[in-house]
Write a structure and sequence with these properties.
Blueprint: E1 7-14, E2 21-28, E3 33-36, H1 44-53, E4 61-65, H2 71-74, H3 77-84, E5 87-90, H4 95-100, H5 112-122, E6 134-135, E7 149-153, E8 162-166, E9 171-174, E10 177-178, E11 184-185, H6 192-202, E12 209-212, E13 218-219
Parallel strand pairs: 3-4, 4-5, 5-6, 9-12
Antiparallel strand pairs: 1-2, 2-3, 7-8, 8-9, 10-11, 12-13
């Protein structure tokens, strides 16, 4: 990958019921913008305002990369695709979540109460469901969309979780890692063994800054060893 200057804007959107916030990242590349994750639908107006304030007008958003299919990360993807004409990319192992409106699709058995409440909390109704335009996997190159980065498959939080590793060595990691209090493994785990293997894989990539789905960006070197 050819290294070019890419500007990152962090967009933090508040989630319902004081459940914290979720991050979207707007990256300005050589030919336009890419958005990593799309946030909760209940904060759509805030997201629109932040995108526009960065100078990303109609026709400028080329790509939406979803790190996984959870509603707080995919809730505005269909809306933004319709508004901007951007293409949506995600891993095929999480596709059923956004096509069916079921964030527990392809996951291990989950508490029935949480399963019933999640769509109500995050507002992922039929109008928010969609099929992605691109299925991306490990090593996938995003430079065609003016985004000098590649995909890293990092299951653990979900089977289809991916990271986006830029040419500069920075990582957008979705919910594999978080920094709401201090840098740590994501608190919601679908597969512990897969999560540990994913973190070990990242440790071999020479990553600089980590941009998590929840909490503040942090240097990779601050993440405690996982054993």
């Amino acid at each position: 990958m050819t290294q070019v200057t890419q500007t990152v804007k962090t967009i933090s959107l508040t989630m319902p019921l004081k459940l914290g916030s979720v991050n979207c990242y707007l990256v300005q590349g050589s030919t336009g913008f890419a958005l990593i994750d799309s946030g909760v639908s209940s904060r759509r107006a805030d997201l629109d305002r932040e995108i526009e304030s960065a100078g990303c007008g109609p026709g400028c958003l080329q790509l939406i990369v979803l790190t996984h299919g959870d509603f707080d990360h995919s809730g505005n993807a269909a809306y933004l695709r319709a508004k901007h004409g951007a293409r949506i990319a995600m891993h095929r192992d999480d596709v059923g979540m956004v096509e069916r409106g079921d964030m527990f699709w392809n996951r291990k058995k989950t508490n029935i109460v949480i399963r019933m409440l999640a769509p109500l909390l995050f507002g992922f109704g039929r109008s928010g469901r969609f099929s992605p335009d691109l299925h991306v996997g490990d090593g996938g190159d995003l430079s065609e969309y003016g985004f000098e980065a590649q995909v890293v498959h990092i299951p653990g939080h979900s089977q289809g979780s991916i990271g986006v590793l830029t040419a500069a060595g920075d990582l957008f990691c979705g919910d594999l890692l978080e920094n709401t209090d201090k840098p740590a493994l994501g608190s919601l785990v679908d597969d512990h063994a897969a999560m540990q293997a994913s973190v070990e894989q990242l440790g071999r990539l020479g990553i600089g800054t980590v941009y998590p789905g929840h909490g503040r960006p942090f240097p990779m070197e601050l993440l405690p060893e996982v054993g």
